[in-house]
Amino acid sequence: DLETIGAHCQYTYCNQLDFLPFRCESCKHTFCLDHRTETAHKCAHAGAWAAARRKATETTTNASSQSGKPSPATATQCSHPQCKTYINTFSAVGVACENCNRQYCLKHRLGEEHSCATLVPLGARPASLVNIQKQKALGALGTFRALIANTKKNSLGGRKAPTSSSVLTLADIRRDAKGDANIPANKRLYLHVEAEAATTNSKLPAGNFFYNKEWSVGRMLDEAAKGLQVQNVNNRGGGEQEKLRVYHVQGGRILEFGEKAGAGILNGNTIVLLRGVGPMVSASPTV
């Protein structure tokens, strides 16, 4: 029977027997050669197959990107400086090194192959730099403490009456001091401010300034750093290695941020900005 070999065209006005019929993937009906296209048989679901195919392709692409599978969009070059291989592609997979946080090709995936021990991990600060910064800060602090200890040893003890030289120094500070003109004259604290060269990078190494006695040491530090143009990241968080501290030379100690500036500092005194020294550690009382 010939009808068992082919199929009749399902277009309303055709019904032709076709031995090689065509199936429409949009409406799922069978048609002859003349009515095989969606336009020819006026498909009721025209474009459905193409839309489904496009959606399936987009879904596959997004899933590949989210899962981190290789694709042309994720291709990068091997982190080895002498390697030109592109990784994270369909032909070359990338291998992440957990120690240095870099990605390499299969040839350089081992630590020995890309000299991992000599690399600084991406996103991490080298421990050696932290130690160097800390040693510089402690060395500078030790120098200032030795200086003030020697000064106290040669003094008579307690607060001495101001000499002509100290009055002259205060007069010089008052003459050159810069500060907020809105601070009342009776509340001004005139100081000589320095930035320790070993731990801070400042455009101005020293200067004379006046501040409000009622301010906290933290606010005074902010103004001092601004005056000497020293980078100040105290308000951004982070560790003590990056924080600035105020060292009071005459008092021989690091001031706490919450202290009142006029509580322990006198007019004509000197303060030094240090970085990385940490808060003051109370010394055991001497007998």
Any overview of this molecule?
The structure is a single chain. This protein is α+β, with helices and mostly antiparallel strands and 287 residues long. The chain has helices at residues 48-66, 127-154, 164-176, 217-228, 261-264, and strands at residues 7-8, 17-18, 22-23, 30-31, 76-77, 86-87, 95-97, 102-104, 188-195, 206-212, 244-248, 253-255, 270-275. The chain is elongated. The chain starts with 6 loop residues before the first strand and ends in a 12-residue tail after the last strand.
Briefly say what this structure is.
This protein has 287 residues and is of the alpha+beta class.
**Biggest sheet strand line-up:** 10-9-13-11-12
- Given the structure, what is the number of helices? 5
Please give the largest β-sheet: 5 strands, mixed
Number of strands: 13
Assembly type of the chains comes to single chain
Name the shape in a single word.
Answer: elongated
Q: Fraction of residues in helices?
A: 25-40%
Cα-to-Cα separation, first versus last residue: 123 Å
H and E string: EEEEHEEEEHHEEHEEHE
Question: Regions with pLDDT < 50 over 5+ consecutive residues?
Answer: 154-168, 281-287
Q: Could you tell me the mean pLDDT? A: 78
What's the gyration radius in Å?
39 Å
Residue fraction in strands:
15-25%
